[in-house]
Amino acid sequence: MDKGRFGVPAGVRDWAIALGVAALLVGTELSEEHPGTDPDVLGYALLAAGGLALAARRRAPLSVLAVTGLSAVGYQAAGFDVLSVPYLVAVYGAVRAGHRGLTVAASVSLLVVLPLTALVFRDGPAREAFAQARNVLEIAWLIAAFAAGEALRQAERRADEAERTREETARRRADEERLHIARELHDSLTHQISIIKVQSEVAVHVARRRGEQIPEALLAIQEAGREATRELRATLEALRDDDTTPPRGLDHVPELVEQASRAGLEVTLTIQGQRTDVPAAVGRTAYRIVQESLTNIARHASAATASIRIDYRADSLAIQIDDDGKGTPDRLPTPGLGLLGMQERVTALGGQLRAQPRSEHGFTVQAKLPVERAS
Question: pTM for this structure?
Answer without folding.
Answer: 0.45
